[in-house]
Amino acid sequence: MPETASLVADLTSLDEPRAEAAVAALADLGETALEATLPLLQSPSSETRWWAVRVAAAVQTPRAAAALIAALDDRDPLVRQAAAIGLRLQPSIEAAPALVSRLGDRDRLLARLASDALAALGASALPHLRRALRSSDVATRIYATRALASMDEPGVTPYLFAALDDDSPLVQHWAERGLERRGVGMVFFVP
């Protein structure tokens, strides 16, 4: 454990290159790293919490994913954004409800990152995104449609067609982009 303690000291040193090197080394330690870094999520320092989230994002385990889900509720927007990025890197269906709730966030970067994380879930996110498309909140519908548009799942096509009827021009835009990406609606002809 002395090595782990030294890495945690580097992680919280406020020296970015040292902290980045510590993240890489801690990621190789897996669960041992989580034992040492997850308590940092309770730190009063938002920077310390951010680095703890950074480690959780690099350690691909269910426990790390659970920590990232919890960090979506952090009081600091940068920590929440880092958690959403982490959930894109290690998709977890357990995160879907929390990510859907962030689609309408006033922090539009967080909403976009949550959309990306939902898209990374693939077909397993479809029931959650279908409900989001019926939200009364226009931002939620926009970012849900954006997630659908960026997925490589054949099952999204009916949802994208339905989104074309939304009142929001941005929802319609993302639906059109998603359909174009799939070649739906394109007409080919011989001149």
CATH topology of the largest domain: Leucine-rich Repeat Variant
Low-pLDDT residue intervals, each spanning 5 or more residues: none
Number of strands: 0
- Ends distance: 71 Å
Radius of gyration: 19 Å
CATH first level of the largest domain: Mainly Alpha
Percent in strands: under 5%
Helical residue percent band = 55-70%
What letter string, H or E per element, gives the SSE order?
HHHHHHHHHHHH
The helix count comes to 12
Identify the CATH architecture of the largest domain. Alpha Horseshoe
Q: Describe the global form.
A: elongated
Taken together, the total number of domains comes to 2
CATH superfamily of the largest domain: Leucine-rich Repeat Variant
Whole-number mean pLDDT: 93
Q: What is the makeup of the main sheet?
A: none
Helical/strand content category: mainly alpha
Secondary structure layout plus pairing:
Blueprint lengths: L1 H10 L4 H14 L1 H7 L8 H13 L3 H10 L5 H13 L6 H7 L5 H14 L4 H8 L4 H13 L6 H7 L5 H13 L10
